[in-house]
Amino acid sequence: MGILEKLFEGLTTSVHIKADKYLLKKVGTPGNWSLIKENTNFSQEETNQLIQEILNSPKAVVEIERPYTKVVQLDRYRIVIVQPPVSDSTEITIVKPIKRLSLEDYWKEFKEHGEEFLEKLKDRIDAKVEGLLIAGAPGQGKTTFAQALTEYFANNKKIVKTLESPRDLYVEADIAQYSKNYANISEIYDILLLSRPDYVIFDEMRNDEDFNLYIDLRLAGVGMVGVVHSTSPFAAIQRFVHRIELGIIPSVIDTVIFVDKGKISKVLALNILVKVPEGMVDPGLARPVVEVRNFLDNTLEYEIYTFGEQTIIVPIAQNIQKNNEKIIKKLEENIKAFLGNKKFKIDLINPRYAIIWVNEKHKKDIIGKKGRIIKELEQILNMKLDVKTFVN
Fold it and tell me: Same domain for 211 and 265?
């Protein structure tokens, strides 16, 4: 395949050919590429010759074949061919991964978060992860990371199989790669369930059928790694929210790894517990709540719960910040009514407890005789208040 090799010289990641119109190349690395327009185009005749050369290669595997479209896997090249009348003229898109990375390569990059966090993530991958989503925008390196994870599991004595459409994960020959294009979902489900793999790497999950298969296999006890296009880590979780019951979401997805510019950008962890959702006070409102936390610092980022018949998704970090700002503002307004322009400081410990710092000689002005003023403030604000003193 001399023509393909010439087209992919250097750091070219994809080639886009439109007969008699243009030859475009994406050159660079995930998240850091530029689009280059070549001075020469492929004529219709040259485009047809290239198509025949691809299809006639003994190494070519036609993954999808329809009257006017074809998806072909040829060694490491994934080739999409579209012809009229589906397109206005013949098009060929050829994609080739420029790097083959190991999980150790990702760990080196992840060290910037600190050794402690790195070890924590390694432990998660080694011992606990069973329902993992690899998320990211197109072209950011999700499949490359999935490939590294596949070989990592296989090298650590796990039985690993891949499910792809098309089969473009470049993995060791002893890892079985299945295609959705040559068997229906029931067949694939039976094969994977009966062959009992430790992990199934499900590349490019797109439609209801894909997500339902992931869910069914995971609930059957198979370790699942799904690759999902999304613009944020939480957007990947949202793809599941209305497809399964709330209570089993953490059983299906326990970890989300977001890949951006070829690196692990963020990791989310999911769990479920019975609690009063953030922002609510009445203990009678306790219910099952799915918590989505930043895996590294354990910050609560989202809560998912049902309210009536609706599934509610609440971005906690943003709401807490806004709510805290409102509480502090209300505190300041009420304290100024007693202290005027005298210096004071507020430490908001949580939405129901704050410490008011004042000069020793002004302490009585905010506490009042027998604590009357501070008790009145606690009733107005519906929170516990302590008064402490500082030295000027």
Answer: yes
